[in-house]
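QUALITY CONTROL LOG
STEP: pairwise intake check
CHECKER ROLE: data steward
CRITERIA: each record must contain a sequence immediately followed by its structure tokens, with no blank fields

ENTRY 1 OF 2
RESULT FIELD BELOW
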Amino acid sequence: MRQKDSKHFLAEAWAFIAIAVVAFVGGLLIGDLGSSPKHEKVYVTAAEEATETEAGTEAEEPAPEEATATSPNAQLFTSAGCGSCHTLSAAGTTGTTGPNLEESLAPDDNTAGIEEMIVNPNTEVVEGYPANVMPQTYGQSLSKSEIHQLAEFLVETTPAKPNP
């Protein structure tokens, strides 16, 4: 009688593992299927504001262009899938699978170092996060130019600094 119980338990365990694997793979596929292939360009213009001074009316100089969720580099960040795992307010993303880039990238991280982190993510893994979670294929799926754009965007929007 004992042998039947262990066989039954083993069969249930294998069935549970098979269902878990199917659910995981299905979740990955459904996550990708839900993304929109449609790309939309958004143009934002800022009206110049005039201020009154003692000498008369002068126009203020426009503020330097800041990275926003509608900037091309922010759109590259989200379209490459980075925002589904990472929080970055400049891109309007709140992912939690990977580290918050505003907190994990430091002033000693530079453009070249960030490019390396994108292409070879296991060379430097943030404490508290496991290796092999970030895709290892960005070196093949993104062009060198796109990788550089992403690195520059992260330097502009986090404590990281550009190359000296």
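ENTRY 2 OF 2
RESULT FIELD BELOW
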Amino acid sequence: MKLNKKPYFIVVSLILFLVFSFTPACRRVSTEITEAKEDIAEEEITEEIEEEEILKEAEDVEKTAEAEVPVLIKLDEIQEQYSLEFRQYLESLEKNYLENVLDDDNEIKKEYDLFEWRNIFFRDEIIFTAEKDIFPDEWYDPEIYAKAESLSEGEIERSKNIIMATLDKYPIGVLKDNLKSVYVLKSMNFFGVDYGGTYFETRVYVVNDGVDMGYSDVNIEKTFHQEFSSILLRNYGYIFDDPGWRQINPAGFEYFDEVTGGAGAIKEGKASQEFNPESHERGFLYQYAESTLENDFNSFAENIFMGDEDFFKTVEQYEKLEMKLNMIIGFYKALNPQFTIEYFKGI
């Protein structure tokens, strides 16, 4: 009797198929289980990290609150002794500086004196009338022949607000030591030329003939920064590296109107203040900056106080401009540590 091997072969084949099919499946299941465990572990680690971060933030908030308590107590005392307005002024100061002030009653008194000076200045020393004695006597001589018109009554309130906001960008100590009066006038004329701004010793003069005539808030503020920077340059010229600044200029370059201080440039129509790449390549912001070193310096001063992101981006594209920017920031920082590049970019 012959043995029928066919059914036996089929059974063995089926068993082998099931074995080899089941092994990968087991492996897949095992892999999936492992991955699931890893995911769970990762989620648990993430949760632990998040919990730690939350706890740390809570601790930081608690520490900050604890640190602020003495400051708030001291500010309450100052408000009672002086005034709410003085407290608000102190609260506007940089945090570390404020804490140093609050640690010393003499420093508090100094800050109050500055605060009082600021209030008196804003009340009495922003002037809108063109009286005979607003300029030094020699400016009325035939050669200069100074003339001015009082500000239009409708522009007084706007002008005062512009100047007050502008002055608040400077530490009061810098203003007190270098500025006695600000004149805002309808027009000024010297040497037969209309001027938008000028200065003398501790006085700054700016023109405002209305928005329709091009005297926007921005233009008026820029003019102040220009003229006040000249006062600072004259008073602290020993800080400024004149030779270093000149070395940035193209080889053999000479400012073309040092003799008249820019008046000649205005008369000859060479006083454009429009930014242009050709000037930038040479190390100047615009044409008028090439007339005198002072006007070159002014061109940066009027812009750094405006917090204009496009200005800083432009300067950073040109090596010579960036070198001058760093020099002028260094000059202002020497006057007061508040004047950092971060400060100017954040205005």
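INTAKE CHECK: passed for both entries
DESCRIPTIVE NOTE, ENTRY 2: The beta strands are 126-127, 147-149, 181-185, 187-190, 193-195, 197-200, 203-207.
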